[in-house]
Amino acid sequence: MHLEIITPDKTVFEGEVDIATFPGSKGSFQVLKNHAALISSLDKGKVIYKIKDKEQVIVINGGVVEVLNNNIVLLAEEIIAEE
What we know:
Elements: E1 2-6, E2 11-16, E3 19-24, E4 27-31, E5 38-51, E6 54-68, E7 71-76, E8 79-82
Parallel strand pairs: 1-7
Antiparallel strand pairs: 1-2, 3-4, 3-5, 5-6, 6-7, 6-8
């Protein structure tokens, strides 16, 4: 899957991932390859994505995510921290 993480200022990450986890406003959820199309609002929390066996964590201050045809676009209000 292709993941793109964008803030109003810049592109934070763009690349292929195996799994992505998001802090949805109704609870955390994961996206895997061939996930159904969706749009969700996000709360403040951790976005976790895995590339092979490496896990990356970014803490956001809310935003919106769109999943469509193995492409994920995260529009984050602000990046609070990168772990």
